[in-house]
Amino acid sequence: MTKKIKFFALCLMILMALVMQNCGKKGEKVVEISGSRTMGPMLLGLAESYKKNNNAALAMQELGSLKGISSILEGKCDIASSSVKMPSQQIFEAQRKGIVLKEFIVAYDIIIPIAHPSNKIKNLFQGQLADIYTGLIKDWKTVEGKPGTILVVDRDEFSGTRLLMSERFFESNTVVEGSIKKKTDTDIIAYVAMHPTSVGYISQRFINKSVKALNINSFSATQENVEKGYYPLYRELYLYVNEKSYKGNVKSFIEYCMGKSGQDLIEKTGFIPVNRMNIPTK
After folding, report:
1. Shortest CA distance to 239 belongs to which of 36, 89, 38?
2. Cα torsion at 235, 202, 86, 93 (round to 10°)?
3. How far apart are alpha carbons 166 and 162 in whole angstroms?
């Protein structure tokens, strides 16, 4: 009888341990990350790497930077990823709601204009690119290219990349009427690769041989040229979190992204780690 009791007690202990383990997993809070589609592949890799050594569940939605920022202001996510600095309108909204946001620059990115491989144009000056997107330049012959109406390919209204290009480089929120709207960098590449008179812009991380990268101001899109101040199209990549939520796995994940292991992984995904970019003083 004693042996049976001991056996029963051992089985009960094992069962309780399994139940407690399962309860812990079910009760585990999922860290919700929402925002940038450009940053999506990078954050997915960081999340998978982080989960290997941490008891954490992370879920990610790639809805666009501006939707990600809206989500964190509405309390619908824990971390917002954005390829553009939070716009002043959202900053005011956060202040109105009494939300204190912590901002982290997690990486740098270089943006490149692209054209069809058959396009003989190799370079555009920044002003020319801006004039193309605002509709002042409509034909390739104006920039010494083969005559043909320029098909302007732009990102959609939720894109941080689009907002950044409009405000920092085009200096206008009005893009030429009739421009083609695409959700992601890969969508833009696919369109430009199929349309010989089109032009677009993408994160350098996504470039492939199906399209042609154009120089800006006669300089190629290299980190060295950015650091020397020669190539202007670069940006910071951000993570935002509500200060009240900056604890547990939310804090730990961001610290992982900013630490050596995370920054090394960021470099492997095609972006530039924050401590390896020497930005010129503006």
Report:
1. 36
2. 170
3. 6
At 180, phi and psi to the nearest 5? -85, 125
Length of the chain: 282
* pLDDT tens by residue, 137-183: 999 999 999 999 999 999 998 999 998 998 888 877 778 777 899 99
- Model pTM? 0.85
CA 206 to CA 193: how far, in whole Å?
A: 13
**Which is it for strands 123-124 and 79-82: parallel, antiparallel or unpaired?**
unpaired
CB 235 within 8 A of CB 82: no
DSSP alpha helix (H) spans, 104-176: 126-134, 160-164
What pLDDT does residue 53 have?
86
Q: What burial letters (b/e) apply to 205-242, b meaning 16+ CB within 10 Å?
A: bbbeeebbbbbbbebbbebebbbeeebebbbbbbbbbb
Cα–Cα distance measured from residue 236 to residue 255, given in angstroms and rounded to the nearest whole number: 17
